[in-house]
Write a structure and sequence with these properties.
38% of the residues lie in helices and 15% in strands. By secondary structure, the chain is α/β, with parallel strands linked by helices. It has a five-stranded parallel sheet with strand order 2-1-3-4-5, sandwiched between helices. The protein binds flavin mononucleotide.
Length: 207
Amino acid sequence: MLQSPKEKLASELRVLCIAGSPRRDGNTDLLLRQIAAGAASREAQTKTVILSELDISPCRHCDSCLKTGKCVIDDDMQWLHTDLREADRVVLASPIFFMGVTAQTKAMIDRCQALWVIKYVLKLPVAINPGKERRGIFVSVGGTKLSNLFQPAIATIKSWFTTLDISYDGELVFSGIDEKGSIIQHPTALKDAFTAGQRLADANLPE
Ligand SMILES: Cc1cc2nc3c(=O)[nH]c(=O)nc-3n(C[C@H](O)[C@H](O)[C@H](O)COP(=O)(O)O)c2cc1C
């Protein structure tokens, strides 16, 4: 069947969903799945990577990337760098651990220092298609209801997105969610996540 121009644009949209929780099928995983389903319902191409199943060492600050923009550590971050540079949309899902993102998420972010070098030292484009708009959102939950619960993590994600030339499209966050899977009991969360995925994909389409 022939695709309409709108469908064609959407199917070319690459949405990279990053699961940062070490707890499989937990609250952020469930939200992320809905976001991916929402984006897929708009014909976007989605790919989900599960950080806890990957081999990603922490940054060693060896400064080897300073001249080349390439990280010398030979692990899964090598291909994830490419995925991050190719994505049109990035969804980062991480629960709050001690007021920040999880260790798995932070290790992945810190390893983007090589991309920081590409942008700020080598002054080269980070995105594979620099002319194409790149957007991202942050998805999170925390067990407590502290008023500033998500602020430190949001600051981290914003700084990371800036390095990747991704504009921060906002966050989908829920406090007071602690037990595995308890997000299902939230009256709107899963539906909100599906809609957020649709919106993220729709943002590419001309009216
Ligand atoms: C090591 C650890 C640290 C945590 N730190 C916080 C915290 O600082 N604030 C908070 O509200 N919840 C904290 N939590 C609770 C988690 O954010 C909560 O259980 C969340 O629902 C886990 O999401 P997941 O199911 O996607 O893994 C922590 C949990 C763990 C295991």
